[in-house]
Amino acid sequence: MSVMNTTRLSITETIADGRITFFRLPHLRDAGQADAVLYGVPFDSGTTYRPGARFGPYGVRRASLSLGSCDHTGNDVFAGMRVADGGNLVCVPFDVGTAHVQIEQQAHQAFTGGAVPLFVGGDHSCSLPILRAAADAHGPLAVIHFDAHSDTSSAAHWGIDKHHGTVFRNAIEEGHIDPKRFVQLGLRGPFGEPDPHAFTRGKGGIVFEAHEYNDALTFLQSLPTAWGSHPVYVSIDIDVIDPAFAPGTGTPVSGGWTPREMFAAIRALRGIRLVGGDVMEVAPDYDHADITSLCAAHLLFELLTLLPHRAASNS
């Protein structure tokens, strides 16, 4: 097997090449040659309000072209790791059940290929088949979930049990998440029910609403020590960010965190054993000047910065 070349294309090379990849990275389907691989998940038929997140991977790729390679400490992320664009997971656009089967099959290959996979969606229902594949590879996961919504709804409202509002209830009930290592951050109302956090807290999980940012940040800083080598998955719904900074999403909610607060929250996680993650619900058609896509690209970059510092597996 030849050694993978992970050198980023220059902006002029990207223009000449005519293809757009995440961060101008090389395109690679063989995850065994990389330390991390970035995938798009262009599916949004699990959306309950505004569709359009199927175009998220394309918008984030385009916005990522202008981002540099050095993190806030001066470390060149792409010089120190082999990172590639793995293309998109292909699934039918019409049916949630069929699409989830297809996404899970491809995600399983991503999690067993030797690289840490990160995904860009796509509506948040896509995280369910990805979590299934991640848990199959690593066992029950610790999950850090950033969102305006809990995504622990039941099937009662729509009569359908799998959509972007049921993801984490589904994943916990199916055994893919360790509920005592499940934390949700950035949630905010107006809520659709009197006790919106009952499911998470009833299972032993922890919730920090958006106004509890300082407490949330302190808690996140404790996780690298508290969780040690336990496998961690980080799931980010872009609507955790206030719509003033990220209007391009399906269900925007005012009163969210700023991008700067979100970057600090991710940086607090240095030392966790990150085995996968996602940035979901980016809908470029509702965007303005690509600011949502740009924010999502920066969040994806911040997830990458965690990888050189992650805890080793005990297995």
Write structural notes for this entry.
The protein is an alpha/beta fold. It is 32% helix and 17% strand. The protein has helices at residues 11-17, 56-64, 77-80, 96-111, 127-138, 167-173, 198-202, 213-227, 259-267, 291-306; strands at residues 36-41, 83-88, 116-121, 141-146, 177-187, 206-209, 231-237, 273-280. An 8-stranded parallel beta sheet has the order 2-1-3-8-7-4-5-6, with helices on both faces. Helix 6 (167-173) links the parallel strand 4 (141-146) and strand 5. It is globular.
Produce the secondary structure layout.
Blueprint: H1 11-17, E1 36-41, H2 56-64, H3 77-80, E2 83-88, H4 96-111, E3 116-121, H5 127-138, E4 141-146, H6 167-173, E5 177-187, H7 198-202, E6 206-209, H8 213-227, E7 231-237, H9 259-267, E8 273-280, H10 291-306
Parallel strand pairs: 1-2, 1-3, 3-8, 4-5, 4-7, 5-6, 7-8
What keyword list fits this structure?
10 helices, alpha/beta, 17% strand, single chain, eight-stranded parallel sheet, 315 residues
In short:
This protein has 315 residues and is of the alpha/beta class. It has ten helices and eight strands.
Q: What structural class should be given to the helix and strand makeup? A: alpha/beta
Separate helix tally: 10
DSSP E strands, number: 8
* Portion of residues within helices: 25-40%
Largest sheet: 8 strands, parallel
Parts with pLDDT < 50 across at least 5 consecutive residues? none
Beta-strand percent range: 15-25%
Strand arrangement within the widest β-sheet reads 2-1-3-8-7-4-5-6
Q: Cα distance, first to last residue?
A: 26 Å
Task: Describe the global form.
Answer: globular
